[in-house]
């Protein structure tokens, strides 16, 4: 993985020292809150509903075991013993004290981490496929591209005060595990007919109060043209993006108002007026970055492992875990272990310091000390020998992390909602818990099959509800929470915004209604149809009918 | 700070977050601040409300608290009328497997802030 060079180290250290001084000046009154707020936000520090919240950047979700141990230490020393994995593959601490934050930033800097650009109208943490470098279906490891973008976008003087925040995701697979078309810019690494690797660029996606799926902007941008081309897009956005209305300031609105055809011409014109060589990075530098992501020293192994196969047959729980939580690795004899942070009795994405240490130990022992956070709020051990999967499973059971529900009805993306967030209109964690408990039976989850439920506690849609197979939006009227449903959303390569069912529901009506929707799907599905396939075949009408059956 | 004039109705309480540590705090009778809602000064007296606004302004300028504003109190329950404020008072409704917000507060004890 990427290691800081001298410049990075010096920069992060000096930034931390600056923030320490800023906190001193805030506490003694030389800085007012109005002056201090933008400074703390530039370092990922929010003031939330109950307390400060610090959002720590995890570039493209990749981190080392030592970094995770440091996060465990921070959680224990400065917070309440846990952290929360976010949909930008970052981690948040919910209870830090302002006076401790400079020390936290020092601790982060000691393991090459920081909280810069996790807030504000800048280019946020670039996200990617959590299986990067391990997936069987990828054209190449997308992380060197992500790292290039991280370096380019970190404190880019031109893009530090954009009209609004800006999110980029990169995938290198046909199977999109990074929700690229829900991003301001989505990048898909592709190979053209000549066998060259380049970039298919999508633009203008985003969720929030105006959900839009990104449109294709350019089907093939060459490697050397990537940064100049992205710079051209950013310049067009920076120039024409609306600054008069916060809710119309994202690039998706500009693309919609301009039209993709005109927008493409604007980008092309901007590109033509640039000197690409000023921005482009040469092959030497790309090679230097790529070297940080060289594949670990895999052994030559066979995919056959009789002892493991036998254990799987004897233990139904292990069998389910194997089926749901292991991903296909590109090397024979290896597997990708997906660790669920979605227990039936916990908040989605929360991980305790103790659990962080347990997972870090597993990464050291079995996965070349490497880990990933996923945008679906889980953890990945990317390079595990299949022969070690059983030992990992047992260790995860001891750590309370062996839930075998990846991709299932209880593997819910959920924002913090009214329990933590200053912007929320309703709670989301208790809804996810009620669903997880209703569908707790693992056999039932297996029968239901792939199901993506996503919950947001307000229209800002941090819980990605628009692209959930079942999406839930929490609202409030006169002190009473209610929930609106969308059906048929999809965040993958076949991305689409879900359809609103209609009238909002109380929590009880909602959970019963979802159960009826699920039951109806099971009765109606043909062959191997997933929920999404059945929904696409029969449409919203019959689902609406069962949802509102008790009205 | 225009938010220091109340626009609500019925009894009022002044709330904010502590600057150094960040917790939700409420103004007490002596215009100091506490994390315990039960200690909050509740009043409908416009003269006292005006004095609370001034005291909050002063506490902001003294770098004691941040983001002060008045909240409406439901006279029937003597608790915050608005749903959001009830969450600020009670903490997260969901702390699975961890000490609840209230247990945590009991363990750490109340925080009191004052300018003197």
Biggest β-sheet description of chain A: 5 strands, antiparallel
What is the total domain count of chain A? 4
C-alpha end-to-end distance of chain A: 55 Å
Any idea of the CATH topology of the largest domain in chain A? Sulfite Reductase Hemoprotein, domain 1
Instruction: Characterize the overall form of chain A.
Output: globular
Count of helices of chain B?
3
Average pLDDT figure of chain B? 91
Biggest β-sheet: strands ordered side by side in the sheet of chain A = 1-2-5-4-13
Give me the oligomer status.
heterodimer
Instruction: Please give the domain count of chain B.
Output: 1
- The best one-word shape of chain B is globular
Helix coverage percent of residues of chain A?
Answer: 25-40%
Task: Estimate what percentage of residues of chain B fall within beta strands.
Answer: 15-25%
Would you tell me the structural class of the helices and strands of chain B?
Answer: alpha+beta
What is the CA-based Rg of chain B, rounded?
14 Å
Return the CATH class of the largest domain in chain A.
Alpha Beta
The second-level CATH architecture of the largest domain in chain A is: 2-Layer Sandwich
Number of strands of chain A: 20
CATH homolog superfamily of the largest domain in chain A:
Sulfite Reductase Hemoprotein, domain 1
What is the mean predicted local confidence, pLDDT of chain A? 96
